[in-house]
Amino acid sequence: MKKSVLLGALAVAGLAAGSAGAATLDDVKSNGVLKCGVTTGLVGFAAPNASGEWEGFDVAVCRAVAAAVLGDGNAVEFVPTTGKTRFTALSSGEIDLLARNTTWTFSRDVDLGFTFVGVNYYDGQGFMVRKDLGVASATELDGATVCIQTGTTTELNLADYFRSNNISYEPVPIETNAEAQQQYLAGACDVYTTDASGLAATRAAFEDADAHMLLPEIISKEPLGPLVRHGDDQWGDIVRWTLNALITAEELGVTSANIEQMAGGTDNPEINRLLGTEGELGAMLGLDAEWARRALAVSGNYGEIFAANIGEGTPIALARGLNAQWTQGGLIYSPPFR
Amino acid sequence: MSAISDETAPAFRLSMLINDTRYRSLTFQAIALLLLIIFMAYMVNNLISNLSAAGLNISYGFLDDPAGYDVNQRLIEYTSQSTHTRAAFVGILNTLLVAFLGCVTATVLGVIAGVLRLSGNWLTAKLMAVYVEAFRNVPVLIWILIFGTFVTLSGGPPRQFLGDDPERSMFLGAFAFTNRGLHMPSIVTGSSAVAVIMIFLVSIVAAFWWRYHVKQTLYNTGKLLPGWVFWPILIVPAILTQLVLGNPIGLEMPDTTANRFNIQGGLLIGKPLIALWLALSVYTGAFIAENVRAGIQAVSKGQTEAANALGLRPNRTMSLVVLPQALRVIIPPLISQYLNITKNSSLAIVVGYADITATLGGITLNQTGRAIECILLVMLFYLTISLLISAAMNVYNKSVSLKER
Questions:
Q1: Does the distance separating the beta carbons of B54 and A231 come in below 8 Å?
Q2: Is A32 left (phi over 0), alpha (psi -120 to 50) or beta?
Q3: What is the H or E stretch that residue B188 is in?
Q4: Looking at the 3D structure of chain B, how many domains does it have?
Q5: CB contact (8 A) between residue B69 and residue A229
Q6: CB contact under 8 A, B362 and A150
């Protein structure tokens, strides 16, 4: 009897696995919740706050998509993933969307079968060292012991950088950012390397943040963005255009403060199309007309999300830099809503 | 008159498959096997169809691509340009190294703790009981983390030893324990080192022949030849060759002035290896101690008393009478403890040790995204190595088991 129950359960599990991968939009709607993969905790990007609610730059993308699709920015089930588990979680259908400062690379896009819907942060790999080591440049790191998060592109960049500069190092592979932080502070490694934004976020959490510095070298391009599975273009479009809506809103000056007023209709047809008072853009996506308005209402436009989570007013204190709007000399650029 | 009717077997009817006890169990086994095959076929088919629906396929081509990452403990030559296969071999050797070291030290610890737990000395017995209970009842992952932190915090930063005027000087000018590991001199071999090694191998054979000869002489004639000659035979020829050939085998000392971050040169036993090795040894040692205790207690008390009556001292009673008999009880569970050490070594990544799970099942898996392929290979490796350990230990078990005639 017990055996047959077990077999039945296994068979059902097999069937359930078989049915994943159809229309993600329908699955999300019928579940009433968006399953969003995030980091296990990187302050500023995705981490639970004191009351246990997830917040951060990547979390805001999840909430905006949930608001656009389900009408509720809190209808998100956050699934913490490590560098190692994130891709399996997405391709197996355990999560609908991965927003986990993941670098857009050729092999991940093509070979692993994912669709990167855009870039929400232009990053690059940097190095953090103690100031009292007296190191001014990454080229002086010959012989150093380096902590790296395993399962990331940084591991490969690091090997390439040291090899091309003909200097040596000892890698210490670490699974999570929290553990890497502890190892670095305990002096088990001289250098911690990961994306510069992650280093800034980690350093901000140190008690003696001033005793540490980031080296000037940025050794790689790390365009970070949300991604979905290959093969469901409608779902990919929804996530892509939700991100674009956040970016376009900043460009057009639509903020969480003036969105209600602007939703009444403006002289700018692109704002009208974005907020659904003109045209049929929502219907084309398979959503209602007000999808973007709801997405923007959760935590504001791209600039507001940046400022609230990782901007210069926060402990992480990242400048906009490459992540300024294209009109401000940055790379953040959304195709038009037309 | 009446013809004796032949007891012919009744003709086979289909209903007998259920009603006849001779066939019933076979029927049910056949049905169960069929269901199992259908279920497995369904699961494999499900996997393949899902993979192809996601545009993925099973392919091992990535193994020949350059790995692209570095590994911190390399027993064979490896750079980031080596292939994934080579990275896997680096991991395999690291797994085997820590498993071997762990098995040896766990056995030593376990035998000592197991024997002492039965000691008449109250304090010793209780201390060993505390050791066994404390280590056995906390998960090995926790112990690995504790030892990892302990090793990191007990050694200072290597900078203390560096520079022309260091804060601390190396122990005997050759050993330094830092939070990166234990630095010690390494052995470097010159051109004629082969001669020294060959001579040493020959002296090993000669030394053991001497030991055998002493035993035979004792048994045959009752004359006790000097046993200590074993040691001079073992080492003197090799040392003489070394001196005559002008020290072809030398030591390379750790260098504290070459680099600003770390001690260079010499041999580094890395912190991850030390932490993992210690944790696996003391954890599994606690289990082996219990096996040893069970084995000793399984030997009837009369054996000890008989040995005492013959005038054997307690330590000889233990080594000549009790332990050889106890081994029959100890070996089978010991095999599974050795398997446990090997399998538990897959937790290595928590202290940053590059075993097979960390290289092939970790970084390679991540960088190539070939999860199923990598995990299958890792499973195959652990299965092979476990079966090999089992087979070897079973051979040994046969040699110590009771010879029944």
A1: yes
A2: left
A3: strand B186-189
A4: 2
A5: no
A6: yes
Nearest in space to B370 (alpha carbons), one of B114, B138, B43, B51: B51
Say whether both B227 and B298 belong to one domain: no
* Chain A: residue whose CA lies nearest to B48: A18
Instruction: Provide the CATH number for the domain around residue B378.
Output: 1.10.3720.10
Summarised one tens digit per residue, pLDDT across range A170-219 is: 888 888 788 888 889 888 889 999 988 888 888 888 888 889 999 988 99
CA distance A187 to chain B (A): 6
Q: Express each pLDDT in B32-58 by its tens digit.
A: 999 999 999 999 999 888 878 766 778
List the end-to-end C-alpha distance of chain A, in Å, as a whole number: 61
Could you tell me which residues come within 8 angstroms of residue B141 by beta carbon, excluding any fewer than 6 positions away?
A: B347, B350
Q: Between chains, do A91 and B69 touch, taking CB under 8 Å as contact? A: no
Kindly state whether residues B393 and B272 are assigned to the same domain. yes
Cβ–Cβ contact B52 with A under 8 A:
no
Residues 273-332 in B contacting A (C-alpha not used; CB under 8 Å): none
Same-domain check for residues B316 and B382: yes
Q: Is residue B123 classed exposed, middle or buried when 0-12, 13-18 and 19+ CB atoms within 10 A define those classes?
A: exposed
DSSP category for residue B320:
I
- N-to-C CA span, chain B: 57
A156 → closest Cβ in B54, B68, B157? B68
Task: Decide the pairing of beta strands B267-270 and B181-184.
Answer: antiparallel
**Residue A14 banded pLDDT, cuts 50, 70, 90:** very low
Least confidently predicted of B5-14, B18-27, B168-177, B190-199 = B5-14
Contact check, Cβ <8 Å, A17/B81:
no
B278 and B359 co-located in one domain: yes
Is residue B20 within a helix (H) or strand (E), and if so which, with residue range?
A: none
CA distance B307 to chain A (A): 54
Decide: helix, strand or coil at residue B276: helix
B69 vs A159: CB contact, 8 Å cut-off?
yes
* Optimal mutation site among B31, B69, B146, B151, interface A, most CBs of chain A within 10 A: B69
On whether residue B132 sits in a domain, the answer given is yes
Residue with tokens 């072809």: B248
Instruction: Residue B352: list chain A partners with CB under 8 A.
Output: 172-174, 183
